[in-house]
Amino acid sequence: MTLRAERRVRDLRHKGTRQVIDFCKARAVEAVFVGNPDGVRRKNSGRHHNQRMSQWEYGRDIDYLQQKAEQDRIVSFIGDERGTSSQCPE
Asked: pTM of the entire structure?
């Protein structure tokens, strides 16, 4: 990848993670859970999609998201997504 393309990708990563944090701030979100997309990467979804997924550097995206969340005083958690969409019966 050329330096210009790398700069564009980095810029888009920063803009995307900034949109996520701005969305959270607008809705007064205090904590963000960041799931590990490794299971999505291992899923067989066809030759071209598999290649795109193998080139995805999601660690950088997670790092950018955590840094921006920390700057805006939003707590971020990383872990398994199991049970995160269920609601407490209380």
From this structure: 0.76
- Residue 47 sits at φ, ψ, to 5 deg, of -60, -50
Q: Which helix (H) or strand (E) holds 79?
A: strand 75-79
* Residue 21 exposed, middle or buried by CB count within 10 Å (0-12, 13-18, 19+): buried
Quote the strand ranges of 5-81, DSSP E: 31-35, 75-79
How far apart, in whole angstroms, are the C-alpha atoms of residue 31 and residue 28? 9
- Tens-place pLDDT, residues 22-35: 999 999 999 998 88
Contact 55, 5 (CB under 8 A): no
